[in-house]
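User: What would this chain look like folded?
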Amino acid sequence: MTKPHASKRHLPTSPFKAAVAPAPKHFAVGDQVTHDVYGLGRVIGIEDGIAALVDFGSGQQLRILSPYAKMTKL
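Assistant: Here's the prediction, encoded as structure tokens.
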């Protein structure tokens, strides 16, 4: 069994640029979104920085947790 890969600390004297984390995704009520698993939906509620409540149609409402890796704003 292998250990999980830990990120290394960037040294200030390094000639290489530090890795940049992607900007967090932000959604607003009414945004149309697509999810890799659930498909097309509309944001109907927001828990700031925690989760988004999304209506995927036919009564299927799901709470999608941040960082919304599988969800994209259309």
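The chain has a mean pLDDT of 87. If you want, I can go into more detail on any region.
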